[in-house]
Amino acid sequence: MTDIHTSPKEMKKAITQRIRAALIMMGSATKADLCQRLGISFPTISKFLTQMEQDGEIHYVGEDDSSGGRRAKRFAYDPEYMLGLAIFVEKTETNYTIFNCIGEIKEEGMMPSVLQQNVQQLVHHIESLIEKYPRLRSIAIGVPGAVSNGQIIFIPPYPNFLDNDLKETIESRFQIPVIVENDMNASVLGFASNNEIENESLVYLYFGQNGPGSGIMINGDVVRGSTFFAGEIALVPQDGGRTFVQALKDENGSSDNDASRNASLVPTEGQIDAVARLIATFTGITNPKAVIFCNEEIDEAVLSRIKERSAVYMPRKHLPELLKSDFKVDYLSGLQHLALDLMITDSGADRYE
Q1: pTM of the model
Q2: pLDDT at residue number 140
Q3: How far apart (Å, rounded) are the C-alpha atoms in residues 105 and 96?
Q4: Rounded to whole angstroms, how far apart are CA atoms 115 and 210?
Q5: Are the beta carbons of 267 and 179 closer than 8 angstroms?
Q6: For residues 170 and 90, what is the distance between their CA atoms, to the nearest angstrom?
Q7: Residues 6+ apart with CB under 8 A from 47
Q8: How many helices (H) and strands (E) does the chain have?
């Protein structure tokens, strides 16, 4: 049911978005197909398709076989009409992908890190990509910190980014819709999407360049928490009054960031126990189907040791699967997923008089 307070402009935008999403999902469709799928009248569908065709957003691809009357025209969405940008910042580099509205990668690459500098360096990176790809219509940015509605509220190693409303900064500069997401939230979303997992509970663990973090999914939904602080596992208490990040220090007392450069992050018994306790905590609270580790940080032998140690704290039958995955691929895939949704629903491509 349409809200009686919806303005004509908002209604036009909503209809365009629904038609856009349907055409992208269906590949191609006739007016009758869209009427049936969307529950919108034939004259309204015809009017909107005419305008979208004039704008170059869709194109005619042929006619269906006749069933006795006039053959129905079939339309498809132009995948190059809108492009998206997924970009994430890390301690040592900035990674990005450019993709079209059906998810095909146009370019992927790496730029210098901006975290040790300032937000304007990231703005410059994005500006260079927009100049190259003027059809960019949405941007998803990943950061190693907690994010509340586009503002970075917790990112301990990088004070130049703390409290920055990155969404507002980028949107006001380029007039392109932006979503800013925590790195681990994007990664667990990307893993689920890449593996076609729906309505499951997952935890994605990464020990990484900036200390440990996690992305939590419950029944298919990413959990961000009441203050958008969910997943900041570095601060989770463990035995002996230590936090998780303190417990990860190796037997020689080196920092967690030193340890993260090892082929296997948790080779010592103390580190095995710290991760096992964390998994037991997740098991007792969210009971995930699987816990995913970055494949560059861990090997099968260590996973087996963690599994055995976890069984000391929780009944084995309730423990999650322990899996490995490609963090960079999952991270960018999650950001791409968010940018595609933003592209369809708030692309800036909708222009009304």
Answers
A1: 0.87
A2: 98
A3: 11
A4: 11
A5: no
A6: 18
A7: none
A8: 11, 15
DSSP 76-119: EE-TTS-EEEEEEE-SSEEEEEEEETT--EEEEEEEE--TTS-H
Measured in whole angstroms, how far is the alpha carbon of residue 142 from the centre of its chain? 8
Would you place residue 267 in the very low, low, confident or very high pLDDT band (cuts 50, 70, 90)? confident
Two tokens, residue 27: 């590949």
What does pLDDT average to over the chain? 89
pLDDT, residue 263, reads 38
SS3 content of the chain, % helix, strand, coil (to 5): 40, 25, 35
Return the bridge partners of 97, or none.
86, 108
| Lookup: tokens for 102 | 């059906």
Give the dihedral sign, CA 277/308/269/203.
negative
196-214 pLDDT per residue, tens: 999 999 999 998 778 899 9
How large a percentage of the chain has pLDDT more than 90?
76
Contact 143, 184 (CB under 8 A): no
Res. 252 pLDDT band, cuts 50 70 90: very low
